[in-house]
Automatic annotation (TrEMBL):
Residues 479-593 form the VRR-NUC domain. The lineage of its organism: Bacteria, Pseudomonadati, Pseudomonadota, Gammaproteobacteria, Oceanospirillales. It comes from the Bacteria. One of its GO terms (molecular function) is metal ion binding. It catalyses: Hydrolytically removes 5'-nucleotides successively from the 3'-hydroxy termini of 3'-hydroxy-terminated oligonucleotides. Its EC number is 3.1.4.1. SMART domains: VRR_NUC. Its cofactor is Mg(2+); Mn(2+). Keywords: Hydrolase, Magnesium, Manganese, Metal-binding, Nuclease. This is phosphodiesterase I. Belongs to the FAN1 family. Pfam families: FAN1_HTH, FANC_SAP, VRR_NUC. The keyword Manganese applies.
């Protein structure tokens, strides 16, 4: 996404500037290098941030992260972790830089010949303090698989097959590994594998500690160390949120251990470990930690789906019954039905009917209940009739170039007095995000724990609204007065470009915003926003593709576009039903492509 930035090229998730090619063009780093806490690029006075012109930008960033963790999590750190943070700063700069280079690279094993960095200087001198500290092993024993990962096919052929047969030379590297496995089943040091190579291998021994630091800083393991440098020339900006001790991602050491344990369980599952072994490792429910319990529930849901696909229906039922992840009750209901346990399925269906967790669950239930009634010989249920939605059919000339079907319909329907915009989910979400900015970025415990959140960490949790109910209610109450338009305009100007999980700055400009404020009734805004809060994860998507405004009449209509062979998705059906039920002007436009001899017509 940054390929077009001047003076920069994208490598993985990191930007390397042309400084490395000697051009002296740097890009902004994410972190400042002073001894204070990390500060993002925010609205307000200009800040002096390090650029990649500083060859030790990555080391400065790492120091800042250690300062952040040391200040905020000192009470949760082990003695070894505290010692590392204290001892790291005492090392020579070259040694510190080399260690960080290794930490930020993939894996834990590195060829000595590949650790050449101009700013560090001679690697043998830089690595010695790391070896003395026990953070790097200079003589690790390597399995054949590890050797293959570090070596070329030619090196392996020369060292391990000095006289290969012609058929061996034609082998792919993976096939060569399988051929050599029976002959080399013991681990050896690199110089024992490759005698007189003049090279070596170093192993980073503190990766587990670094992963723990990464988890404590980000609150997740999705982001790796390479993401610490985000050279975006100031394009990405983040809301400034106050932090308190209660804002930490983790409040006790046991929570960190539990998170890492769940992460390892997921890795074992993805690696294909037998389910019976994995189930024994899944911990009991975290009754006092909703965040960890949500992660545990998601793992149980994935395990249940695996059992369901594998035909292990009894195990799937057990997993779903112990799972609070959204959708688990419906999956359990389907498994009961699939198992022929129709009475139990009907009992669970009645429970769901009394207290549905979401509109999606209700929608699925409406499809399942009639089947259960038929299978149990019960009276039929009245068919649920969807709300009436206007339909239009268009036959258009197939567009040339990259124009989508939505773009073709937009162009066809657009008029000077009734402009059509392709907004999909962007507009209504943005209006919600602007009006409720204060509630969304409220500094609640567990919501923000580092300065680079684009939104609260608990956004997709079921209790997101409940924890902020009073704040959101106050925001929505503005819709009962004329204040809401002023608030939306003010936030639009004041927060321009700051990352938000709802506001789409690249789509919603001032002209579109003014048309929306003029044409959307406040009653409709309140209904849409309340529905978003009812189930943010599901309801942020599925809104109609196009919006047509009639500024003179102060009216609008929403238009969902379906091209040839396309059909309405479940979340789209739910939004259409909701809008039609509340008298909102919504239309579904079905498009067919005209033959070359036909004209476009309505």
């Amino acid at each position: 996404m940054h390929d077009d930035l001047p003076g920069a090229r994208l490598i993985g998730t990191r930007i390397e500037s042309d400084w490395q090619a000697g051009r002296g063009i740097g890009t902004l780093s994410m972190f400042c290098t002073n001894s204070q806490y990390l500060l993002p690029i925010v609205n307000g006075p200009a800040m002096t941030l390090p650029t990649l012109d500083d060859p030790f930008y990555y080391l400065n960033n790492f120091h800042t992260v250690l300062d952040w963790i040391g200040a905020r999590y000192r009470d949760l750190l082990s003695a070894d972790e505290r010692a590392f943070i204290d001892d790291f700063s005492a090392l020579p700069q070259a040694s510190r830089a080399l260690l960080v280079r290794m930490i930020m690279r993939k894996g834990t094993l590195f060829r000595a010949s590949k650790l050449n960095y101009a700013e560090i200087g001679p690697m043998p001198e830089a690595v010695l303090p790391l070896i003395d500290a026990g953070w790097v092993d200079a003589e690790p024993e390597l399995s054949l698989e590890q050797l293959f990962a570090l070596s070329t096919k030619a090196e392996i052929m020369t060292a391990l097959m000095p006289a290969p047969a012609p058929s061996d030379r034609a082998l792919k590297k993976a096939d060569l590994l399988e051929t050599l496995k029976p002959m080399y089943d013991e681990a050896r040091r690199f110089d024992a594998w490759f005698a007189d190579s003049g090279d070596g291998v170093y192993e980073l021994t503190l990766m587990a500690m670094c992963d723990r630091f990464r988890l404590m800083f980000f609150g997740n393991l999705r982001q790796d160390w390479t993401e610490f440098v985000l050279a975006d020339l100031g394009i990405y900006r983040y809301e400034r949120v106050e932090f308190s001790a209660a804002s930490r991602a983790f409040q006790q050491r046991a929570d960190i251990d539990a998170y890492l344990h769940l992460h390892r369980c997921r890795e074992r599952f993805e690696a294909g470990e037998p389910l019976i072994e994995l189930l024994d490792a899944v911990p009991a429910a975290f009754d006092d930690n909703p965040w960890l319990e949500a992660r545990r529930a998601k793992l149980l849901f994935q395990l249940g789906q695996h059992c369901e696909r594998s035909g292990e229906l009894a195990s799937a039922l057990t997993l779903y019954a112990d799972c609070t992840h959204p959708g688990a009750r419906i999956r359990r209901l389907r498994v009961l039905e699939r198992s022929g346990r129709f009475d139990a399925a009907l009992a669970l269906a009645r429970e769901v009917e009394r207290s549905p967790e979401s509109d999606a669950e209700t929608q699925h239930l409406q499809r399942i209940l009639p089947r259960l009634h038929r299978k149990l010989g019960l009276p039929g249920l009245p068919r649920q009739q969807p709300a009436a939605v206007e339909r239009i059919d268009l036959r258009l000339s197939r567009p040339t170039g990259p124009i989508s079907v939505e773009g073709a319909v937009r162009k066809h329907l657009d008029e000077p007095h009734a402009p059509v915009h392709y907004v999909e989910n962007a507009l209504i979400n943005s209006l919600f995000g602007l009006l409720c900015w204060e509630a969304i970025f409220a500094p609640l415990p567990g919501a923000f724990f580092h300065p680079f959140h684009s939104g609260p960490a608990d956004l997709s949790r079921p209790d997101f609204y409940r924890r902020r109910a009073a704040l959101f209610d106050a925001c929505l109450a503005r819709l009962d007065t004329h204040d809401y338009q002023t608030v939306i305009r003010d936030i639009f100007m004041a927060k321009q470009g700051i990352q938000s999980p709802f506001v789409h700055w690249g789509i919603v400009d001032e002209d579109l915003l003014e048309q929306a404020l003029a044409c959307f009734p406040r009653e409709h805004l309140k209904l849409w926003f309340a529905r978003l809060l009812w189930d943010i994860k599901a309801n942020r998507a599925g809104l109609p593709d196009l919006i047509q405004f009639c500024p003179e009449k102060k009216t609008y209509r929403m238009i969902e576009v379906k091209g040839p062979g396309d059909r309405l998705q479940d979340n789209q059906l739910r939004w259409l039903d909701f809008c039609a039920e509340h008298g909102m002007p919504v239309t579904v436009c079905y498009v067919q492509w005209a033959r070359a001899t036909e004209d476009s017509s309505t």
